[in-house]
Amino acid sequence: MQAKEITDIKNTFMPIHTTMPKTLKPFYQQELADYGNAFNKKHYQVSWRHLERAHILGQPYPYEHTAVHWKMICFGIKVKNFKEVIGQIPRLLFGGVKSFVGKIPVGNTGGANVPPLKPMEIPEDLLSIIHSHQNLADDK
After folding, report:
1. Mean pLDDT by 10-residue block, N- to C-terminus, for the chain (140 residues)?
2. Contact assessment for residue 54 and residue 35, using Cβ atoms and an 8 Å cutoff
3. How far, in Å, CA of 26 to CA of 41, rounded?
4. Domain tally for the chain?
5. Which of 26, 43, 89, 129, CA to CA, is 20 to 30 A from 34?
């Protein structure tokens, strides 16, 4: 990812957000639906990847960000991954607040397997979705 793209993403993600734009919400909800479907089929790695993708999309928005961390903690409980459960507790407590004040590590996938404040590269397809909705942030 080029420096200009990172700056553009920061400008998109860093303002204070309270509500996910209506046009972005279906992409977020689809990732959560895909998570549930894969989990029910016991495709745990695939289901986790959908949670990470939902996290990237929902991260700037307090409610959606917190909801993904709740699902991640539940995932950890269901698969008996207690490292994930413990790692999600501070993320669950502080993630939504950081979203509200616009201080998020852009692209971070949200799992306990990555540092909570580390910015990460955003997958190209999600980057395209984010860019196509960045000017629609007022469309609540």
Report:
1. 52 65 96 98 98 96 96 98 97 89 91 94 95 61
2. yes
3. 22
4. 1
5. 89
